[in-house]
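Hi everyone,

Forwarding the result from last night's run.
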Amino acid sequence: MKTYPQNILNQIKENYILGVLADENESFPNLGDDNSPITYASQMNDIIFYIKPLSQEPKEIREVEQNSFNMAPYYIGFANRFFNNSFNNYNYSINERIDSLRTKLKNKLILFKPVLKVDERRERYHKNIDEIVIEEDDWIYDMEYHAVPNIQMTRQEFEKALINQEAIDLKQYNHAMPAPLFLMCENHIYGNIKENQWRIDSSKSNSARILISPKTIKRIELTDTEYIEKIVSEREAIVFVEEPFLMETISERIEKEGVSGDEWENEWMDTPSGETTFTDEVVHGYSKVREVSSNELREIDFIKELDLRAKERKLVYAKTDLINFHASVKSSALTILTGQSGIGKTQLATLYGETLGLSQDNDTMLILPVSPAYTEPGDILGYLNPTTGLYMPAETGLVDFLRSADENENQVHMLIMEEMNLSQIEHYFSPFISLLELEEKNRLLKLYSEGAVCHNNQTYKPSIRLRDNLIIVGTMNMDETTKDLSDRLLDRANVVVLEKRSFKEIKDELSMTKDNPTINKNIGAEDAYGQLYMSWRSKKDSWEAFSDKELEFFDELDKSISKVDPLKGFSIRNIMRMGTYLNSIPVDIEDSYQIESREAVDLFIKQRVITKIRGPVETYESLIGTLRTSEETPDGQLYKLFDSDEAKEISDFTKTKIDLIRKARELFANGYAT
């Protein structure tokens, strides 16, 4: 029996493998009470499960497998070690616990760290699991994946290091793994790499390698769609790419159109217009690392830029709020920002527009403060004067702004309606509410009738098309001076409630940003972001965002609400908007600006469904419940549904349950939930 030193065994479990629950029809080691992929092992007093690997494995593990006739190809996991819920709740029977674990694991991609376990007494090796992450992505049957190291450097720094044959630190893909055939940096894949081109450099770390003959390798750029659809389970320094896509499509593109190492140096020497330039200049206290072009920017860079711009103005927002707001704007015709007065609602909306390169000076952004005097659409749009035959636009400037958006369909325009509920929104904003759910070709905002006499109709035509390039964001406070939102409006808008950060958190984050000289800011990227914005909108079918189990749960939610009030159920419009919202959440391979699917579902339900559940105790007590003390939990149907085992497989629904608790307290104290 060959033995491996401890440092090799330690290296093995520093890597990641992607896998899936083994098939029912396979043969497994005699560890459990029956031959199943999930089984109870009496001798261990534990439920064990077997994971089939779908990506590269460490070399030593492959070597052991090849030299052992009786070694199973599966990795063994233990429920007691990895799960702390109903799988190990001894109030349930063993079969119930096994069924629960099977439901959680079946057909899901499973990311884990491998362990090569040595049984010296029996002279055997076992393949075990050290850490485990159950991914949100479903496994495509028969699909395998290829682990690709993702280099945490700028592309130019990385390419210079390759050309100079410097050691490249392949974190999360160390010397225990086979030599990589592909690398990724930013949104580019590098290929045409041979296994024998790598030389291990242990002097730097146990994951550093040097690539010899680097000028033979080539790179291509991935599209945003390819990145989203073909890459799964991104970690900080490694991604997993669908094997057929990588080995066939990408390899062919690299061979035919890849940019080789010989050409990289020419790019650095003479950077053409539209390509990246690099500088060390310091601007506004941040390290100005580079100016970027639209073909290099990713959507997640925009979110990071928005965060930095906010902190420059001494504003600190939760990253979840920034991503949620961005996804809401992309997926909804109208997004409403609310939260404590003074939290920075209008400033966030304005910063969002400025980061897209929009401004009031160039008529691409309009901040419209709403007056309590607005009672009809003419107050914000204007009117046709029958005496003079002239169309008189309102002083708000809205009509000219909408004309600009209509005439410049490739340029994003952003309308910010400040404190929009100071007046009844359904009165002055009614034409927009009716139009914004329609397709672009049908969104014609009428200014006056077609047959009317209008002497300035060359400037002010009878109607304006509200195009897809129009972003509408409203801000609002909730106090005695404002109006409630109608269900009709809530059914068409995402209501984003900004989280109030503690004063200490704000101070610490601002201090950390100020003192950190390595924070990068993409200077001059605003126009590029604005050009890219339309391409960030998801083109996926809304229904693709859901599993059957999720749809069944939402059906139950709709039934519960509809029994009390049929007009406030989970509408088809909402489920489709939810799918678009989930498809609109940007991917961050570094995980620092990321909303997981479970959290996103919770956010959407809270801001699109629970906002409509409001009314008197006589109507809503059974649905919401009442709370007398803070130690209790609501006894309403909704809280029980969101706290059920079925719900927990979809989301923890933390924010939704907090909002239900608030409503239950209001029902008890005031007899009315808002």
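Confidence is low (pLDDT under 50) at residues 271-296.

Cheers,
N.
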